[in-house]
## 1
Amino acid sequence: MSSTLLMILLPLIILSSIPQESDGQLEEWCIADEQTPDEDLQKAVDWACGNGANCSKIQVNQPCYLPNTLKDHASFAFNSYFQKLKHKGASCYFAAAAIVTALDPSHGSCKFEYLP
Ligand SMILES: *[C@@H]1O[C@H](CO)[C@@H](O)[C@H](O)[C@H]1NC(C)=O
């Protein structure tokens, strides 16, 4: 084998041996951006809950009601919307009120779903 060919093949062999996530995708959740003003967050939550997000878990006495902050409720609503509709072209944006995170935001009995 010529050394030129080896120089081309070697990086390919090394790259292909790096383990990948089984489906090649990283787990991502969609949460509220801390810097978003409350007024904008509230609008985005109302919109998300009316357009596909399942907001039942952030209602009083439900597992994601606490902590009862707009930011936490917005994060749950954004993620619900994003997970359900991401394969239909939805993005984690909400007029810049949302950001993507690789850290699972679930806490206690409040589970933020991740759909592959
Ligand atoms: C919303 O979530 C609740 C609790 O997980 C579930 O019982 C309900 O069926 C869901 N509603 C819709 C429309 O998916």
## 2
Amino acid sequence: MAPAYEPLLAGETSSNNNDSNIIITQDEVPINKSRVTVVGSGNWGSVAAKLIASNTLKLANFHDEVRMWVYEEVLPSGDKLSEENVKYLPGIKLGNNVVAVPDLEHAVRDANMLVFVTPHQFMEGICKRISGKIREDVEAISLIKGMEVKREGPCMISSLITEHLGVNCCVLMGANIANEIAVEKFSEATVGYKENREIAEKWVRLFNTPYFMVSAVQDVAGVELCGTLKNVVALAAGFVDGLEMGNNTKAAIMRIGLREMKAFSKLLFSSVKDSTFFESCGVADLITTCLGGRNRKCAEAFARNGGKRSFDELEAEMLQGQKLQGVSTAKEVYEVLSHRGWLELFPLFATVHEICIGSLPPTSIVEYSQS
Ligand SMILES: NC(=O)c1ccc[n+]([C@@H]2O[C@H](COP(=O)([O-])OP(=O)(O)OC[C@H]3O[C@@H](n4cnc5c(N)ncnc54)[C@H](O)[C@@H]3O)[C@@H](O)[C@H]2O)c1
């Protein structure tokens, strides 16, 4: 990662001037080079920047430089996060062409490809800050798991981005525990898109590497809901681990969870395809999250403590600044279920939330299935 980006001074030319984005190749064919900015620099944000930066160096139609917006934090040592990501991805080189930018507006203003990858609770504020300050030809992709529940119903993060910024937004989800991809262990991911296959293929080229195989499906809602809802099932799997209920029980919970993920997604969006649940974003992400993710880990500790230590406390103690998504997603899903009268249709989702808020003990995770 290169040192923090110096903002352009008044009078300097920015690449907002479209001419500066066009280069002439040897055979005289002009290429409109894309500029990529990653909005977010946590664990997954940093790894996403690493993947992208390795590809922009190789692909002719992308500028080499990848800007990464860093929510600035000053560490106890006095070091700044924008100088080295020692907090969220220690020991991994992101590439010299990744430039850390602590100023959000400067980070996004020249880019025509924006990659959003922050914990979901910060996204509405980020969208408000950059609205009207981005290029008109921006394409976006969200790697964010979670949803916002509003009075008029649930709003997926890709829709939030589209509504606030007026841009098309794809999603990328998959069985992707960031620390494993950081050390280049093989995995897969799924891009979900609405209509424009060409844009989806451009995102695939930007992320795909020999150790990170990306494919695209025309089902943005299905891909995003898979990525979001599996965190609720991971909490259930963690409760089972904490109660030492064994592998059969955990497999049963994962199967029931997958069934609820599919039913909930299809009730919300009739366009969601069954086949999406067999992509990396579906069953593969569910398996990896229930075996290894942070939601499972904190839920295991919660159950071991008999629900006496709150998730906030466990998150602060166990995750060193990383954010748990599953607990807030379980609450958001519960709000949708109760608002629509669907609670009885989704006993696992409902029970997970009730355990998280302490109205049921962790042992209830297997009791609902008798009804
Ligand atoms: N880590 C993974 O393995 C992984 C894998 C796939 C998807 N995801 C998803 O990616 C998204 C981002 O997760 P992550 O792992 O990169 O983040 P993280 O949980 O590791 O880090 C939290 C980030 O939020 C920033 N932050 C803290 N306060 C903030 C504020 N007020 N405003 C804006 N930013 C603030 C921190 O500086 C840090 O960059 C989440 O939706 C997550 O579910 C994560």
